[in-house]
Amino acid sequence: MQALDLVLHPDEADEAGLRRAVARALGVSEDRLTAVLPQRRVIDARRGQVRVRYAVHAFVDETPPAPRNTMDLPDLKGDPSVVIVGAGPAGLFCAWQLARLGVRSVLLERGADVRGRRPALARLNREGVLDPESNYCFGEGGAGTFSDGKLYTRATKRGPVLDVLAALVDCGADARILYDARPHIGTNKLPKVVIGLRERLIAAGVDVRFGARVDSLLTAGERVTGVRLADGSTLPAQAVVLATGHSARDVYRMCHRQGVALSAKPFALGVRVEHPQPIIDRIQYGKLAGHPNLGAAPYSLKRTVEAVGTFSFCMCPGGFIVAAATEADGVVVNGMSPSTRNGRFANSGMVVGVGPELFGEGPLAGLAWQAEVERAAFQAGGGAFKAPAQRLTDFLAGRSSADLPDCSYRPGLTPVDLRAVLPKPVARHLADSLRFFGERRMRGYTTREAVLVGVESRSSSPVRIERDPERLESPTLAGLYPSGEGAGFAGGIVSAALDGMRIAEAIVHAR
């Protein structure tokens, strides 16, 4: 095996072109290459010259290694001893890692399975009617299932990232996620991957239940002993994992009511900004915009002024904006892309960091403030989950929009002045940074064709469910293990999955 680093023009940045480039670099004929295995692929558009950088392992006249299968699980026996609340990435991978370690669990999800979620999403988009238990945030796979499965993470020190990615590939994801610098699965493919993971867990003996909302924890003294479901039934457990995601506000309230240690946590709030994708392509790739080997261009922006950060979040090339509300009186937006990223629009969260100086003290203060902003957005939109929106140029000019450009958000838009919806400090920092980004970072970004859609309020949890840094269990309720984004210990699909795996190992270690 020989390791190579290559820099290619986009014309060569496909499978055939890469193979030719490897043979050329090694000075061998292509027919002697038994395998070319990319390890890393990065599109580099710096300095106005677009190139694609590869790190590859090349095999000449030798047999390449067989791919490993991470989804071989033992046949689990006995009664489940661990209850996992929430079937998002933290919960699913906690159950997976427990299974690998020989421990059987019960995985509880308040919402429906993937197929059962689809009718609820269709009704929300077409009729503006929300199912509070099955929506874009609640249900099998969590909020990530009907997103594009962004897998980029900086959490490389938290655990085996490649194990998570390999497991997703074994369950049906494209193998390119193993080496792409910005890997994603695609909203059209991720549901099948989630189903594949669930089927493997069930086959091993994991008990997976849907429509099973947990309303309270069972305790004895200062130890958790199980959970009580909304239907009144109970499940005993030696350990309970809370992996519920950061939209389950009732879980935070339940924990607060039952004396579980919580603290307020800074988070971010703002809008979704959407452009026609060709505008972003031209800004990023210049004359190579639209090149088939480059695809839809992404972007990443950040700026800190007065110790306040404004940054792009969950950028979706060729994607669309969705209604991510979980409560009947609040508007929340999020973004996603299909695997091809071939939609007409590019959208990104554009959010401002907020903390107790805005929302006050107390562990649930940020939660209440967040919900208040979402209710203001609902009222400004006029109901039925229509979102308040404004042309980017009008927002910067401080005037209302007389009309709005086409937008991918299905429930519909209502033209408003977003400065009247967003908290004043958020609106001020947002306007200043958007102007800076358009003038200094991405010329052409500021255009009447761009629209701001409110509000992007669920970028991260406003609450942390505290845990001991070594044992990873609650300091006030032994046997309770907070995990993932909802507990305030992760920031995406991969980091949440890794955190779930860490929790599994801590549970086994504590036995």
Short description:
With 511 residues, the protein is an alpha+beta fold. It is built from 12 helices and 21 strands.
Textual characterization of the structure:
The structure is a single chain. The protein is an alpha+beta fold and 511 residues long. It has 3 domains: 2-60, Alpha-Beta Plaits (2-Layer Sandwich); 82-262 and 461-510, FAD/NAD(P)-binding domain, CATH 3.50.50.60; 266-456, no CATH class. Helices cover 28% and strands 25% of the residues. The protein has helices at residues 15-26, 89-100, 114-127, 161-170, 190-204, 249-257, 277-285, 356-359, 365-381, 392-397, 424-441, 493-510; strands spanning 2-8, 33-44, 51-60, 82-85, 105-109, 207-210, 214-220, 223-229, 234-236, 239-242, 262-264, 267-276, 302-305, 308-323, 333-336, 345-354, 387-391, 413-415, 451-456, 463-465, 480-482. Strands 12, 13, 14, 15, 16, 17, 18 and 19 form an 8-stranded mixed sheet that branches. Strands 6-5-4-10-21 form a 5-stranded parallel sheet, covered by helices on one side. Strands 1-3-2 form a 3-stranded antiparallel sheet, with helices on one face. Helix 10 (392-397) links the parallel strand 17 and strand 18. Helix 2 (89-100) packs parallel to helix 5 (190-204) and helix 2 (89-100) packs across helix 12. The longest helix is centred in the C-terminal third of the chain and has 18 residues, at 424-441. The two termini are 43 Å apart. The mean pLDDT is 95.
